[in-house]
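User: I'm curious whether this sequence folds into something compact or stays loose and floppy. Could you predict its structure so I can see for myself?
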Amino acid sequence: MALTEETIEDKIEVVGEFKIVQVRTATVIKRDGVEISRGFHRHTVAPNANTSGESAEVQAICAAVHTQAVRDAYAAHLAEGE
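Assistant: Here's the prediction. I'll summarize afterward.
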């Protein structure tokens, strides 16, 4: 009876005016190749975030949607809240 654990990014979404990237990571536990458990973790990536710790896929999406105009608008939005 072999247990294995696999972590996969199973959902990546871009939402809202500032193109926040939401990443859902699934942790799948399998016994002899049959899934017996699945848990989820979510995190977001804002336009001003350092993406160096993200997967290549998330980095590519952020590079595409976090344009300079989006980053400037997000920075202005944050400055309004201070």
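Summary: The two ends are 56 Å apart (CA to CA). DSSP finds two helices and three strands in the chain.
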